[in-house]
Amino acid sequence: MKYAFFPGCVSQGAAPELYPAAMLICERIGIDLEEIPGWTCTGAGVMQEKNQLFGDTLNARNFAKAEQMGLPILTICSTCQGVMSQANKRLTKDPEYLAQINDYLAEEGLEYKGTAEPKHLLWILIEDIGLDKVTELVTRPLAGVRMAPFYGCYIVRPTEALDIEDHPERQTSLETLIETLGATVVDFEGKTRCCGFPILTINEKNSMAMVGKHTSEAKDLGADVMVTPCPLCHLNLDGYQPKASAQLKRSVDLPILHLPQAIGLAMGIPAQELGLQKHIVSTQPLAVKLGSRS
Amino acid sequence: MDVTIKIKRFDPEADQPHSYWEDFSVSVPDNATVLDALIKIREEIDGTLTLRCSCRSAICGSCAVRINGHAGLACKTSLSRAIDEDNCVTVEPAGVMKVIKDLTVDFDLFWDKIREVEPYLQPQGAEPEGEYIASNESMLHLSGVTACIMCGACVSDCTVLEVDPTFLGPAALAKAYRFTADPRDGDREGVSRDRLRNLSEATGMWDCTRCNECVQACPKGVAPMDRIMALREQAVSAGFTNNNGARHTSAFTESVGHSGRLDELRLPIKSVGGITNIGAMLSYAPVGWRALTHGKMPPIRHKNVENVENVRRLFRKLEPDLAGPQIGRNSPFG
After folding, report:
1. Do residues B245 and A50 touch, judged by C-beta distance below 8 A?
2. Residue B98: domain span
3. Least CB–CB distance from B163: residue in A39, A41, A209
4. How far apart are CA B92 and CA B51, in angstroms?
5. What is the tally of structural domains in chain B?
6. Ramachandran area for residue A109 (φ above 0: left; ψ -120 to 50: alpha; else beta)
7. Which residue among A279, B208, B228, B288 is buried most deeply as judged by most CB within 10 Å?
């Protein structure tokens, strides 16, 4: 299956391990990725609070390019997913608004017809590829690994923008996938809450409190590792965990994996190739646990 | 249908007060609401079960509780849609606020915050000779916010209030917007400068994480978070930009407008007011060092997307103030 690939800024910036890990597992699964040429940032909800029209125009531009490629959009970022879904709802329900935006795009020879349906890799694996196929590729099941899911706000709310009514399975998609990889789900209250990243430069204390609360809750429930489909959550939960831990005045040391890394491990791809060594919180205890299985 | 209602209970007068779960099995009509089941339990099984309710029609806002972990009105939630495959549903008191007994919580925190935003019209300048005039359009817009029934569902699920009770929170900020967006409030142009200045301070509009919990929880479509975003737009337009939140959103837009993508290295620096903010730079240092030593520092030289001129053209057209004449030249994001 072939998709128009929307990697998102973070997978090529502050979380550079995500992009190659996603490419590796997609190749194994047989997902052919063609990057949308000259794609731009979705605005991450930040631009939208200042100028929604500019944000929606840039998203329509990405959608129009994917339409030209004749391919459905695949993203590997929860935040990109949510912002694209929200923009797409506004664009497709209001023909006048779409026409206004298409006027701006016309100078570049682009037109968005309203047919894009951006989907996160997480949803694509379940809805398009099918769990049978994923199960087939799981050659090194993560048996014995206790894995806590962390979704990222934008891939769970608001449910209307994400078509949850038509796809109720999306609400438990991460747990479903964790089970498919052979790991044990550690269910915890924080799994659909905010990681605190959006207010990192605005109210660091609150942002760290969120990181501390979620990572320690999962750890106390016995999690060996947390997995997230959102690279922005990853930046905060992993990159800022030492700081959050200091604020909380306790050690947490919970490794955080990107979703494609967890999948890759279960497919037997070496941790090094998946970039696990690039994480701030050491993934070594997980490697030891995985190494001891057989 | 036969259902099991798992209720989180709390009795302050117990010898050692603590929260605990109790299961109740009840038989109710297929079209029953969660509230119908709760009332049936109270009337037929356990008269000590404490809850608030009144109108049973999603108007009074008394019965907000957490159903399956998320806030909502018990009277507006259909039981058949809430139960799982085992016909079970969990009901807990609203979050953030202190539990008084069983499903009732202390609303002081809620009302204190509403009072803090001075929820009454404050027109400035000379009074008009006749009445204050407000357009139909502006009043229709406000009706979306005045639909709030003060149920506290948004406050219950707010991810910021959960860690910081000093945050004004979604209900009070949406209420504040009801006045900043009222053409009669504030100066003769309808700009509520004093309010916007106050709300731009710490614990105000910029502390919201944009997590959408309040949008999801609100039973009346008020969408508090969207109102908070509108407050931010109003505050920036009114010139209240000397804070990290306003700098962040401008710097973000500027970065994308200039290069098409996010410059993750320079954004946080610009958000805190630049490299001269020594305190912030020092606090970033350990995080930056850890990122550098793990091979995950964003590129020093931020690249433009292919055909970036098309993005800059849109930036100039749609965000002229920010794009300015220097676009692509001498800009930190150029």
Report:
1. no
2. 2-105
3. A209
4. 10
5. 3
6. left
7. B208
pLDDT at A293: 56
Cα B117 to the chain's mean position, in Å? 15
Q: Tokens 């103030």: give the residue.
A: B321
The total number of structural domains that make up chain A: 2
How much is the pLDDT for B327?
Answer: 54
Residue with the larger pLDDT of the pair A12 and B298: A12
Chain B residues with CB inside 8 Å of A38's CB? 260, 305-308, 310
Chain segment B98-135, per-residue pLDDT in tens: 999 999 999 999 999 999 999 999 999 888 889 888 89
CB pair distance less than 8 Å for A44 and B252:
yes
Q: Look up residue A215 and give its amino acid.
A: T
Amino acid A267 reads: M
Q: How far is CA A107 from CA A98, A103, B313, B317, B322, in A?
A: 15, 7, 9, 12, 21
Instruction: Look at the block and give the residue holding tokens 């209420």.
Output: B175
* A165 contact residues in B (CB cutoff 8 A): none
Q: Which two tokens stand for residue B155?
A: 């406050």
> CB–CB of B121/B179 below 8 Å?
yes
Strand pairing category for B104-105 and A119-120:
unpaired
B165 touches chain A (CB under 8 A): no
Strand partners, A228: A258
Q: Is the pTM of this model over 0.90?
A: yes
